[in-house]
């Protein structure tokens, strides 16, 4: 027990933590309640299953903070990011994956590792001894969630995360829709045509907004409140903030030209992104929703090109649980009141697949180093991993702590002076990423390796 790392949860964070620890020579047991105990959003018992999107977002490691996380994870031998590249789909400048083969490959890699095993049961109590990582994500079971709340003495924090619908490609009317990435972004023809676009004129858009606002919505259970994370707002919540909100958000028409009517400027455009390698499924980008199923079909079929759409999955909504990490965790991601337990992933208050996996990467390495009795250098704050873990373990304001994506606002200011304006921002981001890559590379070179453990 004392030399084994136990990980609760086989999502992005738990899978990455298991891989990193095992690669350092530590035996790992992944405790996963699926498929015996199901969740609202998951459909399989695979590790690393993607539920609300198939995108790892921007892959630009020079100008984008999440792209920088991609780079750092690859440099660290990350399982999640390397598998994502193995199952990459065209998505302009983003990293989107074929979700089912991705999860199957993550599962196979973990189960083929000689130091990793799995135990399929629900854990509802906090363990008193041994080395543990809790990486149960946004859908932490009620029993374990209550145990965490009892231990921390705080009420469970939650926001609501909505799932976007998926459409069968063959049911889309391509006499109205067309394939094009915004501003033709991408290095290949396939990348430049990674998105399917459905245009709306002003009258169609206004009717769509009216229907969206009037549609039947999912009711919340007693005692629940809708504290949405701004990065994943349901479209009807965005519409409630103003009739033009969607047109300046996921439905913005800029950077696109309709080949069916090149002289006409669309008032709004709905984009769909390929969801599998076969190109048979497309998810509606930014269209997470809490509308009831019948209402979703009626409203989404108002979109030009989707009049006869058939849905492989409709949208939904689920509770997303996270802890107040700045108050509860130390710099090693350990629960202050029970230092034998670490937390990783979305439950710590990071948002997104990539951020979750990156916190799993750190937690796995930290736990393995502790088990092996070797010193792990302090994660450099100027790296993307360091900026994010510093934020959740002390950098954020505890009273207003909310889930956060990685962004350059979390990074320490640059000492180098750069010119102001748009060019200044581009230069500044490049300086951030250059600095991060340098300190991250140095940290990896200093980190204990499997050979040292043996």
Automatic annotation (TrEMBL):
<keyword id="KW-0285">Flavoprotein</keyword>
<comment type="function">
    <text>NAD-binding protein involved in the addition of a carboxymethylaminomethyl (cmnm) group at the wobble position (U34) of certain tRNAs, forming tRNA-cmnm(5)s(2)U34.</text>
</comment>
<keyword id="KW-0819">tRNA processing</keyword>
<dbReference type="InterPro" id="IPR002218">
    <property type="entry name" value="MnmG-rel"/>
</dbReference>
<dbReference type="GO" id="GO:0050660">
    <property type="term" value="F:flavin adenine dinucleotide binding"/>
</dbReference>
<protein>
    <recommendedName>
        <fullName>Methylenetetrahydrofolate--tRNA-(uracil-5-)-methyltransferase TrmFO</fullName>
        <ecNumber>2.1.1.74</ecNumber>
    </recommendedName>
</protein>
<keyword id="KW-0489">Methyltransferase</keyword>
<dbReference type="GO" id="GO:0005829">
    <property type="term" value="C:cytosol"/>
</dbReference>
<dbReference type="InterPro" id="IPR036188">
    <property type="entry name" value="FAD/NAD-bd_sf"/>
</dbReference>
<dbReference type="InterPro" id="IPR040131">
    <property type="entry name" value="MnmG_N"/>
</dbReference>
<dbReference type="GO" id="GO:0047151">
    <property type="term" value="F:tRNA (uracil(54)-C5)-methyltransferase activity, 5,10-methylenetetrahydrofolate-dependent"/>
</dbReference>
<dbReference type="GO" id="GO:0030488">
    <property type="term" value="P:tRNA methylation"/>
</dbReference>
<keyword id="KW-0963">Cytoplasm</keyword>
<keyword id="KW-0274">FAD</keyword>
<keyword id="KW-0521">NADP</keyword>
<feature type="domain" description="MnmG N-terminal">
    <location>
        <begin position="5"/>
        <end position="373"/>
    </location>
</feature>
<comment type="function">
    <text>Catalyzes the folate-dependent formation of 5-methyl-uridine at position 54 (M-5-U54) in all tRNAs.</text>
</comment>
<keyword id="KW-0808">Transferase</keyword>
<feature type="binding site">
    <location>
        <begin position="9"/>
        <end position="14"/>
    </location>
    <ligand>
        <name>FAD</name>
    </ligand>
</feature>
<dbReference type="InterPro" id="IPR004417">
    <property type="entry name" value="TrmFO"/>
</dbReference>
<dbReference type="GO" id="GO:0002098">
    <property type="term" value="P:tRNA wobble uridine modification"/>
</dbReference>
<dbReference type="Pfam" id="PF01134">
    <property type="entry name" value="GIDA"/>
</dbReference>
<keyword id="KW-0520">NAD</keyword>
<comment type="similarity">
    <text>Belongs to the MnmG family. TrmFO subfamily.</text>
</comment>
<dbReference type="InterPro" id="IPR020595">
    <property type="entry name" value="MnmG-rel_CS"/>
</dbReference>
